[in-house]
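Section 3.1 - Work completed
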Amino acid sequence: MNPNITRGSRIYGLLAYLYGPGRHNEHTDPHLVGSWDGFAPDPGRDPNVTLKHLANTLALRPSQLGDALHKRHVWHCSVRAAPEDRELTDREWDMIARRVLHAVGVSREGEDDGCRWVAVRHARDHIHIAATLVRGDLRKVYPRYDYPKAQAACRELEAELGLRRLNPGDRTAAKRASTGERRKAERLNLPELPSDTLRTAVRQALAAASTEEEFFARLAAARILVRHKKGPSGDVLGYSVALPDDDTPIWYAGSTLAPDLSLPKIRRALPNTMEPLSVQAARASRPEAVRRRATSRLDRAQHALARGGDDGADDLAGTGAVLDALAATANEPTRSEILQAARAFERATRSHVRAENADRRALRAAAREIIRAGTPARTTEPPPQPSSPPSSSPSPPLSAGTRPADTRSRPPQPARQPNTSALPTGWPPPPPWPPSETARPTSPPPNAPASTPPSPPHYRDPETGSAPRGRWMPSPPRSQRRRRPATTPRPCCGTRPARVNCVPP
């Protein structure tokens, strides 16, 4: 179930909508399913009761306050079930309305002198709760944090009634666009909502900025209108942004665009230390090199996230900054895809956990380097054309010891095998080369005798562990070297003076 809470000041206008046909004639059989005392007049079922009668009954106590009545004293909450849920009865909807009102503090269970309310049902899948926030003793009620409390109550009711269970809200999602904003975007044929455009611009400016002044300067360079909110002392307390193309700009506060884009949270994210020009010049390099360095930092952050813990919150924020920087500097064919990835990853960067480590600073520094390096050059080289027409038959698999052919350099060569023609008589044949050994054998040194043919590389006598006499022997690769313990006797080869722990032949 999904609750939606609004405030107003006209109880009669709200009831007229609930008992009316609706905007698209979607209201069917409007009637009461519950009230504060269970005996409220119902215009939908009693023909002798008018809508004005019910409105006057609910507005009795607010009218007694006179001028002391506060604005927005009408509390309205709609509770909607999922489309796949079963149809609830009127008695179940009455219980749901009472539980929600009790959770937000508008009306307590068993309280006779609380606020007056009614629950109206005009569809199979939802109800509307209308209440006036004045108690019987004329005390005004101010529900605090009513939306998260209503969400928590609905999560409990879903488990009790066997309905579809939604995830509990963590207050990290961006605010939904209003109906007026969506209709204006449709009327002007905008590709996306203005709030989405501004949110992306603010995130990209934050990813590239080192100080607060640079952050606002980058917003101005992106042709975004910025309005500061200042306190009595002249200090900047907040900011609002708007698009310049609109005749009547609609201003959005940073916290309205996203919870982590408010000015206090931006100040905590910025390092607030401007790098010297010498450091910026030293770090300036090609965009490709900057992206390679950012990849290594992302790999370290990925390992830190795999370990778990609260420190991963800052790694997520730094990763989101790198994605924003890549979306701002990517080429046109891939920019839209990276932008979609950055927006999908956006909510994962918001967390209530505060942690400080070097990984986030390194990732944010990588994001700044990516934006300052600019857009990488697009490769216009055409793909290599095959020398022969392609065949419909599948190509045979590569044999062991070979590598894929490079069509731009030379045709593929057959796998090399060890040369056994130079082995003395009686020596056992050498084992075949491993598949990974594809390098060309090292050529002999210049001072080697020309008459002596070279022996195969990395070959030694299995009995003595030495190479044939009078032949040059290259050293094996580091991966194939084996160290013997000092206490193990070494067999004597007879070609050099005896060593310590040398066993005579």
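Second construct:
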Amino acid sequence: MERGFTPPPIASVGLNESQARGQGLKFDVKSQLTPNWFTARQTAETVYGFKMLVEEESDLILGARPDGPFADEIIGIFGLAIRQKLTAEQPGQRRLRISR
């Protein structure tokens, strides 16, 4: 897990796109702006979102990168999802789910 101390904060966990390609994985890149998340509204931040790599066949979350206030804290949620081998569509993952 990497965290950056930049304005706005950035963080990443799991694989990035080049690492996933290097392992021969087939994946989709999902991204979403999330200015309506509580942490974005709390700071009145308009630039807020995340990028997530999702394996095509299994729908497992391979990596994630949130950008915006509290990204250094939110990254733990993505890390937990990767470690527990959660899919992007599982119940309880509603905040991470992205329509295809």
